[in-house]
């Protein structure tokens, strides 16, 4: 079962119209999907909020760089643990209760971080939020891929990705509003409100019909499907497909131990996620105001506004990926993205070397940062998640995706925990030049190892992998 299904294969106006009409035709289905996608919004809010709150926290508690890095990265430690535990949870207690648990942790973590009396409490509260994010980032796309009506499955999972970027933008905006009252406690605590809404939403969600069937609870599964699908023929088709899929034995560690081909796809998923994080995306997400400070924006207010523009570009460019991924293919988009990201980071690094003293240099610095964000949001952001779900064979898909999700958060943590130290050891300019080089290395890795999966069925990719084909050739037909 995929956690991130392929986006719809066709983008013709007729196909789009059918997606929209079938979405509109079942309000219950739309409600269910939107509620589950709210998890993405919370994920984004928690990523986005810390960049605005950190300067105030650092000032109040007089924190050094090291403690600040821990406040940022403790969330990723929790998320890595949460992602790896989520596979077990989502199977044993079910997707719905796993999402419910994530919602409760979101509420507790938000309130606790808002009321934290000292930096240690704040680190612990962000760890709890991380657990919530980790469980949600595995379970929500999985749940969506299982309940969304077949015709809109890809669109729904893209919506989840989009919600992450909307959450980040909303957090950047709320950072501005609350910075006028200079209150980091409100910035962090206010996220409890959408978290409570998410909790209420989850209570109203049905269990995933696929999970119910896998647990032998057929009548309940049927009842849910009847509410989600208007046409009884669709209900029958879904039951047939799921029964066939459930008949395939699922293996994780066992398959990994005996099958070297499966080890290759698991390794590729992990490598892709590491490169996604080494682009430096979250350096910008977490430390944007500070980077704008380096680029010559003197006041905190100016820095926060510039950060909002980053969030906006991130949302808009994600639409670009959704529109082009099935037309241009994965590899051309990734090559273009790596080149754009390397150029953005490289120019910023060079400018910091020369010194950003004029208004013109400041404008170029901002433009290169925005170029970097647009490059990421159009390519590495959504595409790495899509590829990670496509390259795993059916027998080991849950396991393979759990591993790559874990690696995403672990790598995220390493990048967040080392950025400020890199700045002081390598210097500002060299740090950004290093990210530029890593983006070029990402492009080379794409050339060497990434298969073109556009228009290729998941079954063929899995067959080619297990037959021992080279990773970059998995999408080839012969
Ligand atoms: C990445 C996150 C990142 C986000 C930014 C996601 O694809 O996995 O680490 O913060 O994109 O939009």
TrEMBL record:
Keywords: Membrane, Transmembrane, Transmembrane helix, Transport. It is a multi-pass membrane protein. The chain crosses the membrane at residues 28-58, 70-91, 98-117, 123-145, 157-178, 184-205, 266-288, 304-325, 332-356, 362-387, 399-420, 432-450. The keyword Transport applies. Its main location: membrane. It is found in: Membrane. InterPro entries: MFS_sugar_transport-like, MFS_trans_sf, Myo-inositol_Transporter, Sugar/inositol_transpt, Sugar_transporter_CS. Belongs to the major facilitator superfamily. Sugar transporter (TC 2.A.1.1) family. This is Sugar porter family MFS transporter.
């Amino acid at each position: 079962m995929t956690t991130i299904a392929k986006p719809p294969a066709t983008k013709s106006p007729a196909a789009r119209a059918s997606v929209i009409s079938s979405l509109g035709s079942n309000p219950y289905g739309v409600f269910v999907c939107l509620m589950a996608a709210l998890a993405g919004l919370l994920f984004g809010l928690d990523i986005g909020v810390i960049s605005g709150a950190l300067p105030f926290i650092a000032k109040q508690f007089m924190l050094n760089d090291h403690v600040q890095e821990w406040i940022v990265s403790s969330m990723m430690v929790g998320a890595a643990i949460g992602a790896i535990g989520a596979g077990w949870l989502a199977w044993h207690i079910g997707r719905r209760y796993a999402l419910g648990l994530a919602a409760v942790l979101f509420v507790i973590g938000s309130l606790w971080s808002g009321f934290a009396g000292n930096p240690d409490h704040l680190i612990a509260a962000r760890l709890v939020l991380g657990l919530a994010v980790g469980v949600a980032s595995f379970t929500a796309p999985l749940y969506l891929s299982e309940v969304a009506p077949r015709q809109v499955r890809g669109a729904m999972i893209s919506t989840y990705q989009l919600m992450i970027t909307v959450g980040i933008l909303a957090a950047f905006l709320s950072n501005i509003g609350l910075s006028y009252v200079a209150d980091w406690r409100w910035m962090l605590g206010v996220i409890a409100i959408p978290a409570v809404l998410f909790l209420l939403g989850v209570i109203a969600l049905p269990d995933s019909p696929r999970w119910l069937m896998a647990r032998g609870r057929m009548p309940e599964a049927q009842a849910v499907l009847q509410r989600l699908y208007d046409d009884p023929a669709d209900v029958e088709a879904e039951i047939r497909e799921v029964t066939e899929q459930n008949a395939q034995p699922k293996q994780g560690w066992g398959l990994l131990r005996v099958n070297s081909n499966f080890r290759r796809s698991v390794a590729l998923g992990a490598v892709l996620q590491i490169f996604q994080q080494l682009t430096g995306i979250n350096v910008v997400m977490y430390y944007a105001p500070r980077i704008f400070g380096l680029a010559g924006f003197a006041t905190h207010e100016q820095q926060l506004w510039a950060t909002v523009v980053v969030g906006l570009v991130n949302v808009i460019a994600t639409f670009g990926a959704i529109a082009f991924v099935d037309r241009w293919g994965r590899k051309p988009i990734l090559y273009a993205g790596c080149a754009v990201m390397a150029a953005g980071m490289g120019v910023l690094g060079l400018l910091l070397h020369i010194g950003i003293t004029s208004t013109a240099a400041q404008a170029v610095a901002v433009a290169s940062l925005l170029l970097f964000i647009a490059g990421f949001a159009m390519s590495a952001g959504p595409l790495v998640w899509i590829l990670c779900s496509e390259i795993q064979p059916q027998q080991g898909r849950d396991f393979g995706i759990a591993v790559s999700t874990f690696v995403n958060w672990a790598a995220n943590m390493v990048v967040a925990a080392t950025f400020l130290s890199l700045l002081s050891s390598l210097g500002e300019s060299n740090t950004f030049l290093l990210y530029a080089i890593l983006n070029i290395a990402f492009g080379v890795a794409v050339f060497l190892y990434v298969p073109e999966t556009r228009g290729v069925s998941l079954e063929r990719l899995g067959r080619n992998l297990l037959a021992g084909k080279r990773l970059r050739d998995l999408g080839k037909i012969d």
